[in-house]
Design a protein that fits this description.
With 91 residues, the protein is an alpha+beta fold. It is built from four helices and four strands, in the order βαβαβαβα.
Length: 91
């Protein structure tokens, strides 16, 4: 079983839409398919992330493209709910 793309410590039992579905729907047809994929996520990280503009460490290089397509602060998140990346991003 794969590990969570965010915390890298728990088994991934879910698939997280890095770009939340609500945002993707508003920009239908404008977002390239490679940014619409899901990443493996554990239950805790998937629930905590919710619709926040957070990406797993493996997506760090994609942040400039995300910011160009979807305004706002996109941050790399390591699954820690106390990290500044998590606490600074609002829905």
């Amino acid at each position: 079983m794969a590990l969570c793309a965010y915390c890298r410590s728990r088994p991934a039992i879910n698939h997280d839409h890095v770009i939340p579905r609500a945002i993707a729907k508003k920009r239908a047809g404008l977002i390239p398919d490679e940014l619409l994929i899901t990443v493996p996520a554990c239950f805790e990280c998937n629930i905590r992330k919710g619709t926040r503009k957070l990406v797993p460490p493996s997506w760090a290089a994609k942040i400039p493209a995300l910011k160009e397509l979807i305004p706002g602060q996109w941050r790399v998140w390591d699954g820690n709910p106390m990290s500044p990346a998590f606490t600074a991003v609002h829905r």
